[in-house]
Specification:
Layout lengths: L5 H17 E6 L11 E5 L6 H10 L4 E6 L5 H9 L4 E6 L3 H4 L2 H8 L3 E4 L4 H8 L3 H13 L2 E5 L1 H4 L4 E3 L8 H6 L8 E3 L10 E4 L8 H14 L6 E5 L3 E6 L3 E6 L2 E7 L21 E7 L5 E5 L10 E6 L2 E6 L2
Parallel strand pairs: 2-6, 3-4, 3-5, 5-6, 9-10
Antiparallel strand pairs: 1-4, 2-11, 7-8, 10-13, 11-12, 12-15, 13-14, 14-16, 16-17
Length: 328
């Protein structure tokens, strides 16, 4: 005769509820498939998704199973992606707690993916729920061993670079960050995802639309100062724009906006609490390369070798004001 204590029943019920709640919907085949995949990474800038970039990702899945992970929201990607490309299935996982992030079932569903996409939302939720969990281990497996395409949009894009603006204290606008680089809202940490081409890099999204250039410069200054990184880099994408990176590091900009690549050329002059940022070196503090995206995917450059050509602009900061100087 099998006996279950009330405590045991409680544990089983709790586990069952959590496990049942991880997947909130799947379209296509209920049976997993195994395909030949190609590595790749999609950094999407938010707002309307770029269909061509999503098709690029699904093509690299080899027609396998696509998994969407998120900490809020619903199953909007399921039918959209299933109708957009020839894949075996699309499934959305709602991982909105540490408990769900530690479930073996959650990890197994992620590990079975031939493509994975991180939806938009609040990147602080992703950090507090998924960092140092079974989710982060499963993501490392997909990237390092299984070598499947992985992407994200908006907050999902933010967590793909090695350094992230984690939004622990909500968002921050450029004027506030430039006025005080150490305002509490400028919260930067290391991500729980490791992509070789995005090492020492911090990504930003909704870029031109929300005028985030100034805060991005502050993020780079803080990384140099707080993490002792001599040569950090910034990558940013506008809304309705996605940067796709293949397995060799070749980058392509899909969509209707722009992709930005920022590289400091000197150390910040003043980056201190309660003082405006100052960063100017003969009007060439940071070099900025800007590429217009296209529907077909404009060729950018190989991220293992950043451009040695003259940038499109030089950015400087004087008295907490960002100056963008076009190169003639």
């Amino acid at each position: 005769m099998i006996r279950l204590t009330l405590l045991g029943i409680g544990i089983l019920v709790a586990y069952g509820v959590l496990a049942q709640g991880v997947s909130i919907g799947r379209v296509g085949s209920l049976n997993d498939t195994t395909t030949v995949t190609q590595p790749g990474f999609v950094l999407a800038g938010g707002s309307t998704d770029v269909a061509e970039a999503m098709q690029w990702m699904m093509l690299r899945s080899g027609g396998g199973d696509v998994v969407i992970i998120r900490a809020s929201g619903s199953t909007g990607y399921n039918n959209y992606l299933f109708d957009l490309g020839e894949v075996n299935s699309v499934e959305t996982l709602l991982i909105d707690s540490r408990e769900k992030a530690q479930l073996p079932e959650t990890a197994e569903k992620i590990r079975s993916a031939e493509a994975l996409f991180i939806a938009g939302g609040d990147q602080w939720n992703y950090v507090k729920y998924w960092k140092a969990s079974e989710v982060s281990k499963a993501l490392a497996y997909l990237i390092d061993e299984k070598k499947v395409p992985v992407g994200g949009t908006s907050a999902g894009c933010a967590v793909l670079s090695e350094f992230i603006f984690d939004a622990q204290f909500d968002t921050v606008i450029s004027d506030d960050a430039l006025t005080n680089p150490y305002t509490q809202a400028v919260s930067i940490s290391k991500s729980f995802i490791s992509i070789p081409f995005l090492k020492n890099t911090i990504a930003d999204q909704h870029y031109s639309q929300r005028k985030r250039q100034g805060r991005h410069v502050v993020f780079l200054a803080r990384i140099m100062q707080d993490f002792s990184i001599k040569n950090p880099k910034g990558i940013a994408v506008d809304e309705r724009t996605a940067l796709c990176i293949d397995g060799e590091g070749n980058a392509f900009a899909f969509g209707s906006g722009k992709a930005f690549f920022i590289q400091p050329l000197a150390k910040p002059g003043v980056c201190e609490p309660n003082k405006p940022l100052a960063w100017n070196k003969n009007n060439k503090a940071l070099g900025v390369w800007i590429f217009s995206a296209t529907e077909q995917g404009a060729s950018v450059f190989n991220l293992t070798r950043w451009p040695r050509t003259q940038p499109n602009q030089y950015w400087n900061v004087t008295g907490g004001k960002l100056e963008q100087i076009p190169v003639q």
